[in-house]
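Case study.
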Amino acid sequence: MDFAVQVKNLVKVYDGKVKALDGVELDVEPGEVFALLGPNGAGKTTLIRILTTQLKPTAGEAYIFGLNVVRNGGKVRRLISYVPQEMSVWTDISGYENLLVYAKIFDVPSHERGKIIDEVLENMGLTHVKNDLVRTYSGGMIRRLEIACAMLTKPKIMFLDEPTIGLDPAARKVVWERLGVFKEEYGVTIFFTTHYMDEADLYADDIAIINQGKIVARGTSEDLKHSLGGEVISFTLEKAAIKPELFQELRKLVFVKDVLVENGSLNVFVDDAESTLSILMNFLKSEGLSVGKVSINKPTLDDVFLKHVGTRLEEKGRISDVTQMRYMIRRG
Amino acid sequence: MMEGLKNMLVMIELELRRLRHDRTEIYFRAVQPILWILIYGPVMSSVRAIPTGGVPYTDFITPGVMIQTTTFVSIFYGLMMVWERESGILKKLLVTPASRYSMVIGRSMASGVRALFQALIILPIALIIGVRFIPNPAYFSLAFTIIFFASGGFAAISILVASFMKTRERFMGIGQAIIMPLFFASNALYPVQMMPPILREFSTFNPLSYVVDAVRGLLITGDLSNLLMDLVAIAIFDAVSFILASISFKRIIE
Ligand SMILES: Nc1ncnc2c1ncn2[C@@H]1O[C@H](COP(=O)(O)OP(=O)(O)O)[C@@H](O)[C@H]1O
Ligand SMILES: [Mg+2]
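After joint prediction, the assembly is written out as follows.
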């Protein structure tokens, strides 16, 4: 059984300067929803563009269902569909016409065309606007039209580059519900990139975190969270009190799986908070630290991200994405 | 081959659908050529400075002015390519099974269709101001077929330029820098014989001259003595531009 996606030691250097991918290793099972999660500039788009045969890798190999993306590009393109990160529909014709053009390019037989187009429009909830110019669509509707376009051919694998970028939470939810239904029906593999943590957490069967061109963590959302321990105890301390030596000492304790710090809060990952909390409190007291507040939580994907990437994904990035998306649409 | 033809037709259909929704651009672009034949033509013809071989000056320049506009349309088609590159449209098209060359030729010929409409819209105005066309439907069809294919060639050149230009602003500049010399160093406004020798040399390599010569012969003068050579020149021009544009097209999304 071939993997849906298999990537071996993939390297991509742009213009001999920018190392966008730095030895990526990755396998994706057929039929799963796979999320490639990473901050801006991590190399997500570059990886997708190599997998969809748009760019040649500098080194390494990539296969889609056993087909090499460089040597068998033509065959690969018959199996896949792709939604780029940027807007990718013509805005001066209707939604239906956009799909019609692609149906013809993909050789959908003429007697089935109308039916299939109506079906994908229905899938993505666009039937009522199908004859309107795309120019009049909202950002969410445009994204849904693009995904509808990717559904036309019933591909074996769909590559979605930031499929919900710039959409509000309600619109994102709709997109994922529709994708879920489509996947159930046709068993398509979905490979998507995102920098929305919750999206990977909620919708992906399997996640890889990419940072600076390398895969830094891999597994299901549960696996990844578990790797940090079953629970996280957060102590609010004075910022100045958190010193590197404190880290070292804490890590020496056998039940401590990891320690992370952010904004004056010390997060200690353990398997079981109940049995370890008092020991930790005593330890901090013996170090002469006064603890302000204590809270116990389950580790989140955010924590996993923080551990592997060193920062949380910033809110700032998201807002500029929204403006960028709007800008694209207005120009079209 | 069949695949290429099909994709070409799909791209032409796309262009026709666009035109159906919005023709304002075609109307706006018609203003300039209409000024040429409405004002420049009559003024120059009253000076009687340019030997036109017996036809009224306005009639003489009508084909040239028509072809200048269609060339404009084609050369600026690349602008749309740059926009489609900035958006994700071209990326998505290149991930379909359609071949690169069928996309290039398809888009070029789609521009030819747009150019055809642009040329046709000038006809009624030319008729109203009294330009005398040769009333022969076969000549007419051939003239517009030539315009169609020549525009496709110019659009391919513009796709070639677009694949080297990173921004639309830069493309605009280059576009202007290509069209104006092509126009003035051609036989569109005056016979080649009137030009200084260097320009005359240049004019032999100017595809626009062959197009104008053929179309002028078919629509206005009836002089078809150079038609065969014109057709060959245009065919070579098309082939070369299609090949160059296809080769460089991959670069457009990198
Ligand atoms: N076409 C390109 N030419 C040069 N550098 C590029 C190009 N595309 C991306 N890069 C660079 O490669 C790195 C990875 O970019 P990208 O794959 O777009 O990341 P992501 O999609 O995760 O935000 C970035 O440093 C980016 O600036
Ligand atoms: Mg990206």
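Observations recorded in class. The mean pLDDT of chain B is 88. The CA atoms of residues 7 and 106 of chain B lie 6 Å apart. We will return to this complex in the next lecture.
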